[in-house]
User: What shape does this take?
Amino acid sequence: MKLVLLPLFALLILPPSASAQPTDCLPLLPTGTQGGALLPGAMMNVRFGGTEGAPLALDVYPHADRATRPLAVVLRGGTGTVGQRSSYVGQLVETLGDAGYVVAATDYRSPSLDASAEDLTAALRLLTMCHAAALHVDQYKVVLVAEDTAAPMALLVAARLKELRLGRHAGAPAPPTAVVVVGGRFTNAPAPVVPTRVVHGGDDSEVPVTEAHALCRRGTGGCEVVEVAGASHRAENWWPSQWSYKAALLEWLAPHVGAVPAPARPAAAAGGGPASSGHAPAGGGLRKRIVYDEAHGLSLDAWVPSATSPTPAVVLVHGGGWEAGDRVTYIAPMFALAAARGWAWLSIDYRLTPEVTNREQVTDVRAALAYVRAHAAELRIDPRRLVLVGESASGQLVTHVAASEPTLAGVVSFYGVYDLVAMAGDPANPRSLARRLFRIMTMDAAAQATLREFSPGLRASKALPPLLLIAGTADRLIAQQRAYAAALTTTGARVDTVEVDGAPHGMEAWHEESGWRVWEQQVGAWIQRIVK
Assistant: This one.
């Protein structure tokens, strides 16, 4: 069956007596693996539009009780139609879900703004008109949360739905209560017509904050700009010292959506929710914030499949330049990949610079591995079939740790940094790698020795567990991968490499071009071979 989506203007001609409950709704039916979820109780890959051969789908995170809640639809930027709906927005999904909102993340076609707006409207229709009762959402308390290139789409849908004014009785969803833009791009963005908060990096070199102010000056629904001091463009790259925007955002939303019931699932909010136990959920599933280092407040998320015997597991270490990110950023595309193959995944937090140095970060990764092994029975995983996975900055961490972890089944490093000497920079610059990672003030012999000690590419060894190195050919770090692979080969180490033709830095971006998604099959097949 092909779903026909009416243009928004066509909704105006529908009779006022049209049923409030549409008769052509698609079912609220999760499909495929559910192991890519960011929060417990998810309904993943629910089709809302497109065709059976080329579906448009969404992920929705309802709560376990029957309390009616506001809905937050979180929209990732970038290009492409389908793939990782949680790319770039993991922290936003967690923040809103842990605050008690029902959260959804949706596909949309990006080639044109009109097509994107039609897709978002169709998703809202499914969530707020077709299945509001099942999801326990208040269809009149909807917040659109957009980042990067999704900002114009969210603002356009708000403007069009407000203009209709007939709301759900005319076949269209009610207009959103508010719009939030975090690190947005504003080309072709219409003026805000509903209450809008624009959270923008004060040091954004891609989209100057003056553009955010210019957008708000055009607004008629109440628009304000919040500048995050020192922050760059994308919010997932913001440092923990800049994360206070999250609590401020929830406070701003409160008068627009009213009281929000407490979350009805294990809380995962940073600094606020109770830690989960290490036991795997009965029948498999997701457990949030299992504390693996109580002294430093470090935790991990664990998803385990429904299995009667221990399964292989991938331990995931996020990147972020050693100074940004958390369990749900950057490396989230690995969640569904692992779950679809029947492996458990465990995604860890670790301490970030400048509060600690790279030495302590290495210690944290080792502590997480030790915890996973010690609690393998509780987690229903096989400690002999552990694969350690890192990306970008954490590529350095996992390949360095691998030298002292010969019993690992394997190590996968995406576009890693392997030669800190070559990238050290001038310690006189506070942003230099030498200064940020090791607090080096002078590049003397001791400093050089430290950089070499923590440079996997300069310490290649045959004793390492099997390694897979993967990077895009458009990534400047491809040169470091090639040099490291050559050094490993010279020693006789077991190493394989993958180069994704034309791909840039970051696996989240690799979901924006179908040709780049070859990495999923290649990485999956490599891990499968070493854990069988």
About this structure: DSSP finds 14 helices and 16 strands in the chain. The two ends are 40 Å apart (CA to CA).
